[in-house]
Amino acid sequence: MQHETLLPTTSGNLIVYDQGTFCSSICGNFSLQKCSVRLSVPHVSYFISTKNGYYRIRPRADREPFLVYCDMSDGGGWTVIQRRSNGKENFNRWVKWDDYKLGFGKFQGKTDEYWLGNDHIYDLLSRGESSLKIDLMDWHGERRYAVYENFQLNNEQDNYRLWFGTYSGNAGDALSGGSNFEDQWSASHKGMQFTTSDKDHDRFLAGNCALENKGGWWFNRCHAVNLNGRYYKTGRYNGSHDNGIIWSTWHGTWYSLKYVAMKIRAPFFVDSESGDGENSQGG
Ligand SMILES: [Ca+2]
Questions:
Q1: Does the keyword Glycoprotein belong to this entry (predicted)?
Q2: Positive or negative, the Cα torsion across 222, 227, 232, 237?
Q3: How far is the CA of 200 from the centre of ligand 1 (A)?
Q4: CA-to-CA distance for 96 and 240, rounded, in angstroms?
Q5: What letters, b where the CB count within 10 A reaches 16 and e where it falls short, cover 180-202?
Q6: What is the pLDDT of residues 180-232, one digit of tens each?
Q7: Could you tell me the distance, in angstroms and rounded to a whole number, from the CA of residue 174 to the centre of ligand 1?
Q8: What pTM was computed for the model?
Q9: For residue range 13-50, what is the model confidence (pLDDT) as tens digits?
Q10: 197 Cα to the center of ligand 1, angstroms
Q11: Do 68 and 57 touch, CB atoms closer than 8 A?
């Protein structure tokens, strides 16, 4: 019998839940189609509604558990792998490749900024999480989203090369590079390796895209999407490089978004009607 433990809230709403689980499985009793946690105590099993918050998950039994924000609204079961909301966290890392590999940021408040880490993301994806949803919000409070099926990373030996399949949503398919062939050739992120300022794997021969664009990413030469870029508090910005937080098919490359989050879950997940109803998109 699987042992599951739900501990009382400590600071914030951390819940320890680290037996081979991740957000989809916490919020993933598919027969109930409900975001719930099964509590197992002697002779009794029952369910409670699951809340948005930070959970300590353990997708691989041979690795240490780690903290992550589980978004149980928006259908439920989402593991948030990246979030930008206030510019407080430095994504232009000094110790670069290893920070992006292991993860960094703050894991406390519901809008705290972090990068979960390429190793953690890789482990979650290799466990079957493969739907990627990206939430976007501009400085007028308007929201858009993009969903990609078959989101996958290769391992570190291949520098976390990025793959993804079918797009749906209302933000435009910027990860594929934009609307015309020339843009796609130079800016599509499909098949690109991860680049940081100390490890250049991009297709820009004359330089390093991560240095110009202020954060690690799956750069081509260089990008149509730059979600780890510099946080501008204005929306439109000027500079020598288009290094803001960019989703080019919505606001172009000279507009930096106010809020973005990247989240993943299992592709067979059935949207939940519960969760705690909290709007996870911050603001
Ligand atoms: Ca280069």
A1: yes
A2: positive
A3: 5
A4: 22
A5: eeebbebbbbbebbbbbbbbbbb
A6: 888 899 999 999 999 999 999 999 999 999 999 999 999 999 999 999 999 99
A7: 21
A8: 0.85
A9: 445 554 445 677 665 433 333 454 444 444 444 444 46
A10: 10
A11: yes
Please tell me the distance between residue 48's alpha carbon and the centre of ligand 1 in angstroms.
50
Amino acid type, 228 = N
Question: How many residues are recorded in the chain?
Answer: 283
- Give me the residue label for tokens 């078959």: 150
Ligand 1 centroid to Cα of residue 207, in Å, is 5
> What are the backbone angles phi and psi of residue 146, rounded to the nearest 5°?
-135, 135
For 108, the 3-state DSSP assignment is coil
Q: Report how far apart the first and last C-alpha atoms of the chain are (Å, whole number).
A: 42
Going by C-alpha positions, the residue among 169, 176, 175, 189 that lies closest to residue 74 is 169
* Residue 60 binned pLDDT confidence (cut-offs 50, 70, 90): confident
259 within 8 A of 135, measured Cβ to Cβ: yes
Bridge-based pairing of strands 114-115 and 104-105 is antiparallel
Torsion, Cα 233 236 242 247, to 10 degrees, reads: 90
65-112 pLDDT tens trace: 889 998 888 877 889 999 999 999 999 977 799 999 999 999 999 999
